[in-house]
Amino acid sequence: MDEIIKIDLFGEEFRFKPDDQVKDPSQVVQYLTDYIQEAEGMVPNKNSGRNKIAILLLAAMNLSKDFHELKMQHAELEKDMENKISSLMKKIDKGL
């Protein structure tokens, strides 16, 4: 993928080249932008350099929290699927 993705943070443009594993890089940028906008609403005096860092940190922490929750849900789903597969295998074995 040779696409260069641009993101504007506090009036400054950043560019990155996503690797081939990123299926929709513009969606990744949109997620980040959404998290930053949400964090901006929680921080007063958004133009202060110190507060810009606080906004980015808050956005990163919120993103990290959501990622952790998704990882936990995924692990629970995997465990549930393993249990169901195991139960089905036992039923199949009994039927044979």
From TrEMBL:
Top-level lineage group: Bacteria
SUPFAM superfamilies: Cell division protein ZapA-like (SSF102829)
An annotated GO BP: cell division
Pfam family, one: ZapA
Keywords tagged on the record: Cell cycle, Cell division
Gene3D superfamilies on file: 1.20.5.50
InterPro entries: Cell_div_ZapA-like, Cell_div_ZapA-like_sf
Zinc keyword on record: no
Name the record gives this protein: ZapA-like cell division protein
Organism: Desulfotignum phosphitoxidans DSM 13687
